[in-house]
Specification:
Layout (H helix, E strand, L loop, with lengths): L1 E3 L5 E4 L6 H8 L2 H4 L12 H11 L6 E7 L2 E10 L7 E8 L8 H15 L5 E7 L3 H9 L3 E12 L2 E11 L3
Parallel strand pairs: 5-6
Antiparallel strand pairs: 1-2, 2-3, 3-4, 4-5, 6-8, 7-8
Coenzyme A binds next to strand 5, helix 4, strand 6 and helix 5.
Length: about 170
Amino acid sequence: MIVATENPQIHLRSWGFRDHDSLVRYGNNKLVWRNLTDMFPHPYTHEDAVKWVGIANDPGSSIFLAIDFEGEAIGGVGVIARDGNDFHTGQFGYWLGQPHWGRGVATQAARALKNHAFSGSRFKRLEAPVFAWNPPSMRVLEKVGFVREGTLRKSVLKDGQLIDSVMYAAVRDA
Ligand SMILES: CC(C)(COP(=O)(O)OP(=O)(O)OC[C@H]1O[C@@H](n2cnc3c(N)ncnc32)[C@H](O)[C@@H]1OP(=O)(O)O)[C@@H](O)C(=O)NCCC(=O)NCCS
């Protein structure tokens, strides 16, 4: 699967075996891990990369794609499908290798992911809880049309600290 972004140098695509090394290169970074749920391991090993590519290629109704720059996976995006009463809600997330920060890539990838997720029939709401210490990610979500819905006080235990998270969400009009 390939999903274009507004930047011709960046697209979203399925994960593959060739991405194991880049997953470790970019994923094994405490500054990345610190802003993600503990589903993302640290340290990030070759075995974690192998496991991830297996999961990402059997996504069910979820979406797991690599951010591709010149053939290299420089990060990842995803929407995790929920069930039951939350059937039409997806948990929206993304991460980017640190050398690529600060150039608008996450914004381009998040916008493309949002449009892609809303182009199918499953997702009517995408939600992204952001750790309170991560204003750059809040800015990314605001740039792609997510709305700040509120603060979830003391909702997250991360890196030994009990912190607030901020709920951002986008809903589909129809
Ligand atoms: C958060 C992350 C995805 C941002 O990626 P990026 O490609 O650097 O983001 P972009 O360049 O598209 O946009 C970042 C925005 O944050 C702004 N920003 C940067 N530092 C900031 C700060 N301290 N406070 C407020 N805004 C800040 C930038 O100026 C930019 O906004 P602008 O375009 O209006 O100038 C990246 O740092 C990352 O992967 N971090 C680790 C994982 C993570 O946080 N994932 C998201 C979990 S919710």
